[in-house]
Specification:
This protein is an alpha+beta fold. The chain has three domains: 2-81, RNA polymerase II/Efflux pump adaptor protein, barrel-sandwich hybrid domain (OB fold (Dihydrolipoamide Acetyltransferase, E2P), Beta Barrel), CATH 2.40.50; 167-217, Dihydrolipoamide Transferase (Irregular); 221-442, Chloramphenicol acetyltransferase-like domain (Chloramphenicol Acetyltransferase). It has helices spanning 167-176, 194-202, 220-233, 248-258, 270-284, 330-345, 351-354, 419-434, 437-442, and strands at 2-8, 18-24, 31-32, 37-42, 47-51, 56-61, 68-70, 74-81, 238-246, 290-293, 298-301, 307-309, 311-313, 316-318, 321-322, 359-362, 382-386, 390-396, 399-413.
């Protein structure tokens, strides 16, 4: 005999309570092995791949792609070899169960609770829905609402075929809350286009108006980022200082280093030198690599530098960090920065990549911006913004010349860092970028 086992959404160890199902890697009827990656989920911090904790045959996917579920809720049923009779795949738990977790994250007891069903407004007829838009409860991947068949329709009515649309169009539809099955495609062979999705949004009440306004759900990484920035801005007293720097010698050093064999295949950019300069400045001014512990009423002076790099990813702002960056050689630091930013932009940064940062760099120069007042990453005391490098008039030895110039902006927590310390750290970074040899002299 065989039995059905449910795999429940695990707690990935970051205190999160829910996650969105991004994509399934399996379908009903597939054979899975113990430890095989079966689904990608998006938490408030990152996209995470989940392995199946047992082997068998997929009986049913209990949650659709795009749906948000609570930690501890069943997401997939797997038929495994067993000696007892088959158990129903969706039988309600009679008592709290030990929630499945990822290896290394521990186990928590978490009963599953269903969200309350949305009640229709007084002016909304029961069962009314806007064509093309997701129903708030029980929507299937094909876009049909999960409900009892009425007397006039057969109970065994077949599900409509999957709508034809390219992946970018499917993503746009998911972001805007549009069900593709409710649309008529205007593209080749009846495929659904971006314009079809936009028209569906424009024609729906409460989602858009005739001028093309759109509403994008706030969830996942973007939701977490917004909450963290608000908490940081209104918790830590921010101060920002600015310094304009002649980086002509640094730009020349970047070009020379690119030709060295040790850096073959690595990305050597001005950011690499900014990172090394900041790490050296931390060694000279250790208090800027610290955090404020409100509960303990202590300042935590960190023993190593976990260097965060702000990355504008498709899912929102991410700040992965290079662990113990101060101990790395320049080639190793270049490799770590390259791997970290590529992973983050691909949406593959893990919670471990994003946790434990101690100080951050944000490169606003890549957007053509000279300077800004960056908000501290929560739990950190300082963040350095690196502006664009551009030609500017500059006085050199009493003579006006055209030099490569950029602006540095250092925001810091004024509870920990006073003006003298913040100015000293910023001046150190600027001095090393004006003359890269200082990095060797001060290291």
């Amino acid at each position: 005999m065989s039995e059905l086992k449910e795999f429940r959404l695990p707690d990935v160890g970051e205190g999160l309570t829910e996650a969105e199902i991004v994509s399934w890697h399996v379908k009903p009827g597939d054979t899975v092995t113990d430890g095989q990656v079966i689904v990608e989920i998006e938490t408030a911090k990152a996209v995470v791949e989940l392995p199946c904790p047992f082997a068998g045959t997929v009986a049913k996917l209990l949650v659709d792609e795009g749906q948000t579920v609570d930690v501890g809720a069943p997401i997939i049923a797997v038929e495994i070899a067993g000696s007892g009779p088959a158990a129903p795949a969706e039988a309600p738990a009679k008592a709290p169960e030990r929630t499945a977790v990822l290896v290394g994250y521990g186990v928590k007891t978490a009963p599953t609770e269903r969200r309350a069903r949305r009640q229709p407004a007084a002016s909304e007829p029961k069962g009314a829905a806007v064509p093309g838009l997701r129903s708030d409860e029980g929507a299937t991947r094909e876009g049909t609402a999960s409900r009892r068949p009425e007397a006039s329709e057969p109970a065994n009515r077949a599900s409509p075929p999957r709508s034809t649309a390219k992946p970018p169009v499917r993503k746009l539809a998911k972001d805007l809350g549009v069900e593709l099955a409710g649309l008529t495609g205007s593209g080749p062979e009846g495929s659904i286009t971006r314009d079809d999705v936009q028209r569906a949004v424009a024609g729906s009440t409460g989602r858009s108006d005739i001028r093309g306004d759109q509403r994008v759900p706030i969830r996942g990484v973007r939701k977490h980022m917004a909450a963290a920035m608000v908490a940081s801005a209104f918790t830590a007293p921010h101060v920002t200082e600015f310094l304009q720097v002649d980086v002509t010698e640094t730009m020349a050093a970047v070009r020379r280093v690119r030709d060295l064999p040790e850096y073959e295949g690595l990305r050597v950019s001005p950011l690499l030198f900014v990172a090394r300069a900041l790490l050296t400045a931390v060694a000279r001014n250790p208090m800027i690599n610290s955090s404020w512990d409100e509960a303990a009423q202590e300042i935590v002076l960190h023993g190593q530098v976990n260097l965060g790099i702000a990355v504008a990813a498709e899912r929102g702002l991410l700040v992965p960090n290079v662990k113990d960056a101060g101990s790395l050689t320049l080639p190793a630091l270049a490799g770590a920065l390259k791997a970290l930013t590529e992973t983050a932009r691909a949406g593959k940064a893990t919670p471990a990549d994003l946790a434990g940062g101690t100080i951050t760099i944000t490169n606003v120069g890549v957007f053509g911006i000279d300077a800004g007042t960056p908000i501290l990453t929560p739990g950190e005391a300082a963040i350095l913004a690196f502006g664009q490098v551009r030609d500017a008039p500059w006085v050199v030895d009493g003579q006006l010349a055209v030099r490569k110039v950029c602006t540095l902006s250092l925001s810091f927590d004024h509870r920990i860092i006073d003006g003298e310390l913040g100015s000293a750290a910023l001046r150190d970074v600027g001095s090393m970028l004006e003359d890269p040899l200082r990095m060797l002299a001060w290291s």
